[in-house]
Every structure is written in C-alpha cells, then in structure tokens.
C-alpha cells in the first residue's frame, strides 16, 4: 500500500515497445506491465529476476530516461511523469544512479573531482571552484581522500572507481538512488566493503535505494523489501526476510532454490521450471509463468493473476498460492 510519506511510489507503471515482426507487421512488447511498488525513506527495495524480466527498463522509467506508456512515478509525492523541461530538471538532483561497471560510468577524460562535482554544476548551478569543498567532503565520506580529486579513472582500482560513482550519486543529497548491480564487477572482499558503505550512507542520509540484482546472496544481506519480476510483471513482493523464509510464487521458489549456498551439506528439493524463459511477446494471456510452471493448470493460461496480500505486506500473484 502506497503512503504519502513514501520516497517512491509506482502506480500501474507500464512500458510497451513496438517491435517489428515482419515487413509490415508490429507487435506490442510489454516490458513493464502495471507495476505497483513503493519505497519508504531509508529503506532498500531489491528488484530481482532473470535477464529480460524488466528490471532495467523499470529503473530507466523511474529515472525518466525513457517515457512510460502508462501509469505514474511519484517521487516524494510529486508525479514526475507529468514534469517537463526545467521542472523535471529541478527534480533530477533528487534521484541518482550507481552503475554496474564503475569504469564505464566514469569519463576517462575527466578528473575524479570534476566527475563528482558534475551533479552540483548541473543541478545546483555551482562553479567548479564552489563545488571543490563539498566534493572533498564527499570523497572522504566514501573512503577516499581529497587528493583523489586530481586523479583520472585509469589511476583507480575497481573499488575506488565505484566509490567515486557512489560519491557522484550522493553529492546532491538525493532522496532515491538506483543501484544497478553495483557490486557484480567487484571482487568478493571489495563487494562487502561497498555494501557496508552503502548501508552507512543510507543510515546517515536517510536515502531510499532501489537495488537491482541477480545475486540473491547480496540481496539477502542488503534488502529490506523484495520485488520479484518475471516478463515485466511483479509476481511476488514483501518484506525480504519474509519472502526469503517463505516464498509463495513458484517462480520465486525456483529462483531461491537455484541460488548457490556456501554450505555443501545444504539439501533442497529444487523447483524446476520447464523450458527456457520466453520473451514478453510470447507471454501467455494469463499467468506469465504458464508453460514453465510445475503447478500450472489449463485455467492459468487465460486467467490474469493479480497480486493478493496473503499476510502483512506480503503479496503474491498466483491463485493456487493465495
């Protein structure tokens, strides 16, 4: 349930791409299909799912990098899908992103100082000289020294480069930061350092995180809430601890039981999905998992599934599990 105090609230957010299927034929691909999720201040919502589930498209919609086909994105109770021009630019400082590959996200021609200062120059009209002091403070907050401001990306380690990306995203004191697989390209020891840094900054600044990941071990560690996506739809959502302890949707069960476990003695009855994941173009009219689901019945093919609350804030889109 969305609240007026939520940092982010998505209401029936939808994105349809027109895909050419022949010389004169097109089809609608629902990359994001009527998604309703919210994030409270100071909390982390992790969005998980296989490649092609719609996670990245969802993030791009939230940041207004692409336009939605329908629905709304409320950032601090302001409908940013209705904003244009200077009104939209004024809100952009309140939502930032940390990318998966730290080197790809940093310009090789800019110093670290210029990179971190860029949001202040764009959103707060500061000069480079005016931005130098807050940049130095932010570099120290992410575990770097003010001297790093003079360096270029090729002079940084992977962990240092990601700290620069985090500093850049935090410099405007945003309400929301989208974390797009922020640790997947880093060594395990560096991953834990970055996760601890993100948690520390969240507690200090009361930031909301949208954490996109396929690594369920990382998600289990950092997420307060969880949304599981499959072919553009959220099929299960709720408090992360609750979903991990008691997954109800067959797709969530399959994801969790397929995840590697550090304990070699751990035993599980694996939930097998049949066949390969189709594209959203080939999705069944009813449940998107129909055709792969081990408990599906004929009625599932044509019966759309709605998220139903089965216990406090834990919702599942499966009529056999509600």
Q: Helices and strands in order, then pairings?
A:
Layout: E1 8-20, E2 26-35, E3 38-39, E4 44-48, H1 55-62, E5 70-75, E6 78-79, H2 85-92, E7 95-98, H3 112-123, H4 128-141, H5 158-170, E8 176-180, H6 188-205, E9 208-212, H7 216-222, E10 225-230, E11 233-239, H8 240-245, H9 250-258, E12 308-311, E13 314-316
Parallel strand pairs: 4-9, 4-10, 7-8, 8-9
Antiparallel strand pairs: 1-2, 1-3, 1-5, 5-6, 10-11, 11-13, 12-13
Helix pairs in contact: 3-4, 3-5, 4-5, 5-6
Mind explaining what this structure looks like?
The chain has 322 residues and is of the alpha/beta class. It is 30% helix and 22% strand. It is built from nine helices and 13 strands. The chain has helices at 55-62, 85-92, 112-123, 128-141, 158-170, 188-205, 216-222, 240-245, 250-258; strands spanning 8-20, 26-35, 38-39, 44-48, 70-75, 78-79, 95-98, 176-180, 208-212, 225-230, 233-239, 308-311, 314-316. The chain has an eight-stranded mixed β-sheet with strand order 7-8-9-4-10-11-13-12, sandwiched between helices. A hairpin with a 2-residue loop joins strand 10 (225-230) and strand 11 (233-239). Helix 3 (112-123) runs parallel beside helix 5 (158-170) and helix 4 (128-141) crosses helix 5 (158-170). The protein starts with 7 loop residues before the first strand and ends in a 6-residue tail after the last strand.
């Amino acid at each position: 349930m969305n609240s007026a105090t939520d940092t982010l609230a998505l209401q029936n957010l939808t994105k349809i791409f027109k895909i050419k299927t022949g010389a004169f034929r097109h089809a609608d691909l629902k990359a994001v299909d009527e998604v309703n999720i919210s994030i409270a201040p100071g909390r982390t919502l992790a969005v998980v799912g296989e490649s092609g589930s719609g996670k990245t498209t969802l993030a791009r919609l939230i940041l207004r990098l692409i336009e939605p086909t329908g629905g709304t994105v409320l950032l601090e109770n302001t409908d940013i899908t209705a904003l244009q021009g200077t009104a939209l630019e004024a809100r952009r400082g309140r939502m930032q992103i940390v990318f998966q590959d730290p080197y790809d996200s940093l310009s090789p021609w800019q110093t670290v100082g210029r990179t971190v200062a860029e949001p202040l120059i764009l959103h707060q009209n500061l000069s480079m000289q005016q931005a130098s002091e807050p940049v130095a403070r932010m570099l120290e907050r992410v575990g770097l020294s003010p001297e790093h401001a003079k360096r270029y990306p090729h002079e940084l380690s992977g962990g240092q480069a990601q700290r620069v990306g985090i500093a850049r995203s935090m410099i405007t004191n945003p309400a929301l930061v989208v974390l797009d697989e922020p640790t997947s390209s880093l060594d395990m020891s560096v991953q834990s350092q970055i996760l601890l840094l993100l948690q520390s900054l969240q507690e200090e600044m009361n930031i909301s995180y949208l954490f996109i990941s396929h690594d369920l071990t990382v998600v289990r560690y950092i997420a307060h809430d969880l949304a599981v996506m499959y072919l553009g739809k959220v099929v299960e959502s709720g408090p992360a601890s609750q979903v991990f302890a008691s997954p109800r949707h067959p797709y969530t069960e399959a994801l969790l039981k397929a995840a590697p476990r550090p304990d070699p003695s751990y035993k599980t009855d694996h939930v097998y999905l049949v066949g390969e994941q189709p594209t959203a173009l080939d999705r069944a009219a009813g449940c998107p998992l129909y055709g792969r689901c081990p408990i599906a019945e004929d009625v599932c093919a044509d019966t759309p599934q709605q998220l139903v609350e089965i216990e406090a804030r834990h919702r599942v889109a499966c009529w056999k599990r509600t």
